[in-house]
């Protein structure tokens, strides 16, 4: 029959690196399947993904796949925000945070204009843009919600919203809350709950809107894969009845392009990788808490003590989430001397080439806050984790890593760190040694995470589950077009 023009999908990521990065990677994956992709975002956020998109487009030119476009629109100016503050990473106060969210809602106008002018076959919009479900429906465009988290975390939120188990739990931060109906026993302290209607009613309402919008959408797209959390995939289909496509880990697309475009943001990339070249296989721990979680001087102090005490060589990212406290505020005694040796640790101030570091043979562990992208990147590169989650889905992701998959060791032992105060350097050192030292436990963890890394690779390859999920999504969208 007649040759159809390629499917066109509009991506509309939330404005934070942890959402923009996987969306750029996902666009690269979709483009490799022959889908025309456009990413709608603002100037500062476009800069974060520009080099990743350029790399994907270089690869596409060789294979004849469609190029990815970035449609750049101004960040809505409502006053009261410092210039250049266009994403979650740049926010430093609650006042700014409120202004930022208020301004960001005005992106609905350019979003709708794009739909009206370009009539894409579908939109993949972040679940945080819950209003995009109705906006897309008004334009007759199917909307897919992008869930930047695990199926497990998604199922926990759903259980929480559906059952409100907090209703019968005392108003005590240490009270235990059981989330009903999940494949595994998921119990957290009240203070660890991502949403607590008693504490933040607005937040609860927001999550209900998000959940409702996702459920009236065409479906949900996950950066995960069937083999990673099969019980939760099954649970999701049984209880939510929505459609889901699991197309990850999308970071593998960037890994195959020898790192991400964002790695170019890191002036320390080359020297760090050369430093890692001097280290034996599996001997170094990489320490990072992502782009939004900044550490206090007390936390940095205990981390430095822990890294020193562990005796394990380390690469430590300080201040990727913004300005780090001056070292005089946190450096323990003897740490400057330890660093001066040059061979024990490498500190990166600012942005790290995370994917390249994780993929280096010298890597033996990742001390992580369990952001979903970091977690998946560790799984994809077969690196076991030392977990120190702080808030939101990070606590659920830790449960997946430690309790369900058995590919990590928890520093806090599931206790609420924020409420119980300090994590001591001794506990940090003990967890690192438990994971990376010579032991049966360490060997078992390493074997499991290598195996998962292989499963991740198979999932995205031709005929794998994630590869096939992209294909079935394309078939549905094509069928809709001709219907
Ligand atoms: N990242 C990076 N270099 C850094 C810090 C973060 O490349 O110095 C990347 C990391 O690889 C991941 C993303 O930024 O893809 C962070 O997402 P995640 O979900 O792990 O955490 P968040 O920052 O959203 O809390």
TrEMBL record:
<dbReference type="InterPro" id="IPR002213">
    <property type="entry name" value="UDP_glucos_trans"/>
</dbReference>
<keyword id="KW-0328">Glycosyltransferase</keyword>
<dbReference type="InterPro" id="IPR035595">
    <property type="entry name" value="UDP_glycos_trans_CS"/>
</dbReference>
<dbReference type="GO" id="GO:0035251">
    <property type="term" value="F:UDP-glucosyltransferase activity"/>
</dbReference>
<keyword id="KW-0808">Transferase</keyword>
<protein>
    <recommendedName>
        <fullName>Glycosyltransferase</fullName>
        <ecNumber>2.4.1.-</ecNumber>
    </recommendedName>
</protein>
<dbReference type="Pfam" id="PF00201">
    <property type="entry name" value="UDPGT"/>
</dbReference>
<comment type="similarity">
    <text>Belongs to the UDP-glycosyltransferase family.</text>
</comment>
